[in-house]
Fold this protein.
Amino acid sequence: MYKLYYGPGACSMGIHIMLRELNAPFELHRVSLMDGDQRKPEFLHINPRGQIPVLVDAGQPVREGAAIIAYLAAKHPTPLLPMNPPDAAALEWMCWANATLHPAYSRAMWIKRNFANEANYNALMTNAIQALNTLWQEADQVLGTRPYLAGNTPTMGDIMMTVMANWGTAQPVHLGQNVRRVIKDMVARPAYQAALTAEQVEYKAAA
Ligand SMILES: N[C@@H](CCC(=O)N[C@@H](CS)C(=O)NCC(=O)O)C(=O)O
């Protein structure tokens, strides 16, 4: 039985959806980022970085979203991330979501958390939103040439991108029509719907 430390609607939701897609046995442990649970000693013991997601497999913590996804895909062969042989495009887009799109959102959120004065805040936020729009434009262009980010079938990159598309930012982010087509498709999957219900999250980005 896996244990997943998650925050409702956070990046951990992609792992939650994956566990459901794989029909893997798991239990959820909620970490409230709003309440600062991630900085409490009992959680820092599990992840000294004070971040979710963490997957615990038979007492062994697996940290970092991309590592957890690759770990699960290696243990439970899945078309969502073929590992044997490895699918380069599926790995690339899974990492794009986790290691490129996610930090771009974090940047926008950290400005909100840390801004020094109103003038700086507005300039930094506009810049951060522009960076996000450039990334979404790239995804939209790719999705204009093929059904899903990595080719003809959905992979973890599509799921992670869909989770992040639902994150609120202080200024609107533009999602193109091809991105919207794919996120609607992802959200309609039973595993996605079940994860939204379990985490009590409303999906707003596909409207
Ligand atoms: N590189 C990490 C990033 C994880 C991350 O930023 N998680 C956010 C939630 S989406 C978090 O736990 N934030 C807590 C905080 O910033 O205090 C990963 O991919 O696992």
